[in-house]
Amino acid sequence: TSTNLKEGVRLSKKQKMSLAIVQKSNLTKCSIGFIIGRKTTTNMVKFAIIGAGGKWSNVYIKNLNTLTNFAEIAYLCSRSDCSLKLKELPANPYIWEGDYKKVCASPDVDAVIVCTPPESHYGIVKEALNNGKHVLCEKPFVLNSEQAMELHELAQSKKLCLVIDYIHLWNN
Prior knowledge:
This protein is of the alpha/beta class.
C-alpha cells in the first residue's frame, strides 16, 4: 500500500517507515532511513560498514541492529589489527573483510557506511558509487570542494543516495 502526500508523491510502506525513522530518531538513524527509503525493492537493505572497529562504527552497528525489519549488516570491513582480532570472537555474527574494494563490488551489499579517516573517504566513496552502492559517509565528507562536487555528480548520475552523517548533531 501507499499514501498520497500533498505534492502528489506516493510512498510505499517501506518508505513510510523510513520517514518515521527520520522523524523520530537521532541523525544517524535518519541518514540510514534516507537510504532505506531509496531502496525500491521489498528486500531489506544490506549495509557494509567500512572502517569497522573505529570510533564511530559501533554507533552504526547499534543503530542498524535496531532496524531489523529494514536493514541488515552484510559486511564489516577493516584493516586494523584490533578489528581483525574482534572477528575471532565466538559470538561475532558478521562477515569480515579487509579489502573495501571487495566489499564495494559485492552483490550482497546495497549500501556502504564509510567511517574511516577523512583522507580515505574520497577513494572509498567513489569506489562504492561506481559499484552502484548507496553511501553514508562520516564527516568530514572529503578534503576539498572539487572532490565533493565530483562525488555528488557521480551519485546523481547513477541515481544513488549520498548522505553525509553528522553524528550527534541533533541529539540531546
